Amino acid sequence: MVSTAALLAGCSHKSPSMLDAKGSEASRIAGIWWLMFALAIGVYVVVAGCITLSILRGRRRRAGTASRRSEGLWLWLGGLVGPVIVLLVIAVVTVQTTAALRKPGRDPLRVDVAGEDWWWRVHYTGTSIDTANEIHLPTGRPIEIRLTSDNVVHSFWVPQLAGKMDVIPGQRNTLRFTVNKPGVYRGQCAEFCGLQHANMAFWVIAESPGLFERWLTDHANPTLEPASETAAQGQVVFQRQACAGCHTIRGTTARGTRGPDLTDFGSRRSIGSGAADNTPANLRQWITDAPSIKPGVLMPPITLSGADARSIVAYLESLK
Ligand code: CUA
Fold first, then answer.
1. Element (H, E) at 21
2. How confident is the model at residue 50, as a pLDDT?
3. Helix (H, G, I), strand (E, B) or coil at 104
4. What's residue 79's pLDDT?
5. Ligand 1 centroid vs 194 CA: distance in angstroms?
6. Number of Cβ atoms within 10 Å of the Cβ of 22
7. Coil, helix or strand for 149?
8. What is the pLDDT of residue 62?
9. How many degrees, rounded to 5, is the angle at CA 111 between CA 110 and CA 115?
10. CA–CA distance from 174 to each of 4, 106, 166, 271, 280 (Å)?
11. Which pLDDT value is given to residue 76?
C-alpha cells in the first residue's frame, strides 16, 4: 500500500500521463489500458471471492468424494476457459488497435526526427526548416514523424500523443498520430542510450492550423539582423569562435551540423534537451562549461572573455 502511494505520488501533474490523452493514437492506447484495468479488477474480485469462500467453507466440508466432480469443473473453468477468454479479448483489441495506429492518414505533415547523443534533430520534410528538441505541429492534421539514428537506439515518446517508437540505426520507423488539442506536450527518450539518457527530453508545441502555418512561414525566413548592438557583436564572436564549426544559424555563415541548429534558439524552453531552463544565466554557463550542466555532452568548455560571453548570450537569446 505504501509503495503504491509512493508510486502514485510520482505521477504529479507536471509529468505527462498517457491516460491524459490529447492525441487520437494516445486515446486508443489509453482505451486498451482501461480495458486491461477493468479485466484485471474483474479477475481479482473473482479470485479473491473464491479464496474467501473456500476459507469459510473449507473447515466444514473436508474434501469428500461427492464434491470431486464439481472441483474438477471449477479447475477447468478458472484455470483454462476464463484466462483464455480474457487473453483472447485483449489479443483481438490489441491487434485491431495496432493496425489502426499504423494506418497512414490523408495529407500528413511529415517531420524527420533524428536521435542524437543526447538531443533531437528536427527537419520539416520538403522545407529548409531545421530545429532541435522542439517540434511545432498543427492540431487536427495527420502527422508522420520519420525516425532515424546514426548512433545508438533511442525511443521517441510523447505519452499524451502516441505510443513509444524505437529510433534504430540503419532503419526508418514512422510514428503516426493526430494531435486533438493545442498545448505543449513533453516528450522523452524512452530507451536507455547512455550517460545523458534522462536529459534527452523534447517538447511538442501543438497549435491551430493557422498559427502553425504562420510559424512555418516565419521560420522559413528567419530574421537575419541581430536585434541589438550587443547581439550583433555576439554574432561576430559566434562566427569567430568554435561555435560556428558545430552549429548552423540559417542566414549566416555558421553552417556546422554536429550540434543542434540554433536558428530559433531564443524561442526554446530548455538548453541541452531539458538539462536546464533557457535563461541567460544558464546559457552563459552552458557556453563556457557545458559539461558542468550535462556531463558527457559533446560540446567542450569554451574559454571566453566576460564581454564575449555576454554578447553571445544576447545574440542567441535574440534568435526567435
Ligand atoms: Cu536517447 Cu535515451
1. none
2. 86
3. coil
4. 85
5. 7
6. 21
7. strand
8. 56
9. 145
10. 35, 15, 10, 27, 36
11. 87
Kind and range of the H or E element at 109?
strand 109-116
For the chain (320 residues), the mean pLDDT of every run of 10, in chain order, is 50 74 93 95 92 81 60 84 93 93 90 96 94 96 96 97 96 96 96 95 97 93 80 91 91 91 93 94 95 94 92 92
Decide: helix, strand or coil at residue 183.
strand
Which one, of 213, 185, 217, 221, lies nearest residue 201 by Cα? 185
Contact 261, 247 (CB under 8 A): yes
Task: Tell the residue number behind the cell numbers 539518457, with chain if given.
Answer: 197
The pLDDT value given to residue 159: 95
Q: pTM of this prediction?
A: 0.86
Count of other CB atoms within 10 angstroms of residue 189: 27
The CA 120 to ligand 1 mean position distance, Å, reads 10
User: What are the distances in angstroms from CA 299 to CA 6, 107, 233, 280?
Assistant: 37, 39, 22, 18
What is the whole-number distance in angstroms between the Cα of residue 119 and the centre of ligand 1? 8
* Cell 469462500 found at: 53
Residues with CB under 6 A from ligand 1: 115, 118, 154, 189, 191-193, 197, 200
Closest protein CA for atom 1 of ligand 1: 154
d(CA 237, CA 225): 15
Residue 87, all three cell numbers: 487473453
Lay out the sheet containing 201-207: strands in order across. 134-138, 201-207, 183-189, 154-157, 165-167
